[in-house]
Amino acid sequence: QVQLVESGGGLVQAGGSLRLSCVASGSTSDLEVMGWFRQAPGKQREWVASISPGGRTNYQDSVRGRFTISRDNARNTVWLQMDSLKPDDTAVYFCKADRGRTSIWGQGTQVTVSS
């Protein structure tokens, strides 16, 4: 089994930055694409960014240029650097890892951006 634990959320003013971390533990071999999703109150969970084991990245249009996803396969860790944060970025952020047909989710970390 694989467990994902996110950290790094918090309260920040608009224009500020936060760095989220997601550490995978357990049976971490063969983890494939890892990504970040977010869910704001009253809204559906949405994809934010993803990264392949080789480092190829993809971003949702609303965060491209402001967020940067990265990973260290040896440390089983993926990060989401979030800059120029906006109130609309307020949400619970979840880490997800894919392995074959299985998706593993973390418990989420709250990000709140005040105006």
Query: What portion of the residues fall into strands of 2 or more residues?
Result: over 45%
Q: Specify the structural class.
A: mainly beta
Mean pLDDT: 95
Shape: globular
Determine the N-to-C terminus distance: 40 Å
Can you give the helix content as a percent range?
A: under 10%
Which sequence of SSEs, written as H and E, runs from N to C? EEEEEEEEEEE
Rg value: 13 Å
Low-confidence stretches: none
Can you count the helices? 0
Q: Which short descriptors sum up this protein?
A:
115 residues; 7-stranded mixed β-sheet; 4-stranded antiparallel β-sheet; 57% strand
Short description:
Helix content is 0%, strand content 57%. With 115 residues, the chain is mostly beta strands. The model has no long low-confidence stretch (mean pLDDT 95).
